[in-house]
Amino acid sequence: MCGIMGWSFTNDCKLSLKQRSTLLQLGSFSADRRGGQSWGTLIVDDNGLPVVEKGMGPLIQIDFEKLASAQMGYAHSRYATRGKINLKNSHPFEYGNIIGAHNGVISNAAELDHIYGRKEVDSEHIFERISEKEGLSKFRGYGVIEFYDKEVPNALFLANIGNGDVTLFEIENDTKSHTEAFYWTSLMEDGELALAGAGIKDFESYELTEGTVFKFVKGENCLYSLESKLRVKPNKRQFKNERINFLFPEIISEEKEETDDAWKLWRDKYDV
Fold this sequence. Notes:
The chain is an alpha+beta fold. 21% of the residues lie in helices and 35% in strands.
C-alpha cells in the first residue's frame, strides 16, 4: 500500500508560496500514513520537462517550498507490498516515455512476470505496458496512477484504474468565477484537512471515474477527461498486513470489451 499527492497551479492562481507549501506539506501526511518507507517526487520544470527526486524514509522530510515553487507535479510515499525497501524500488518508475507512480496492488503480478518478464515491484508492469501503448486488460487488482508522458510536455495524467483511493479537489477563487488549482490526495479527509490548514475555503471535491484518464495541462484551469481502457479487472481477495486491512468487495458490473489499440485511439482523439 502507498500514498499519493499531486497538484496543478494555474496561471491565475493567487495562492501564496506559503499556502502552496503548507498544502503540499499537510497533504504529505496523507501519503505517509499509507507509506513512509521511501518517497519520490516529480515536478514539471519551466521548460515543461520532468525532474524526479527520490529518497528513503517519509515524504514529510523534504523541502516543500522548493516543491511548491513548481507549477505542477506529484509525490508518492511507498509502503512495500512486494520488492525490497530501497531507492531503486521507490516510485516513480520510468519506462520509455512514461514516468509514473501507483497507489494500490496488482494481485496477479506473478502471472504478468511470466508474460512480460519479472519486475521486482508489481507497479512497474503498469508503466511498462502504458509505455508500449497497451491497455491493462490482463491486470487484476486496484489502484490509482499518476504519470508524466515525455511525448506530451507540460502535462500530467491521473487515473483510477479500479477501486482506487483518490480524491480530486478543484480550488476556486473567492467568487468561484474560475479555477485556481487542482490538487489530489489518497484520502478525502486528509485533503480537506490540508486545504483547511492552508487557509483554502473555496473548493469542490470529486471521485474519479474508473477507467478514465484525466489530463492536467500546465497553467490551464481546464480538466480534460480522456476515455481509455486503463482499467484492471476487480480484485476480490483479501490483503492483510500489520498496517492495512482492506476487504475488496465484488464489483457487480459488466466488463467492457478491451481493444488492443484503445490507448492509441484516445491519444489520437484528444491530440495528446
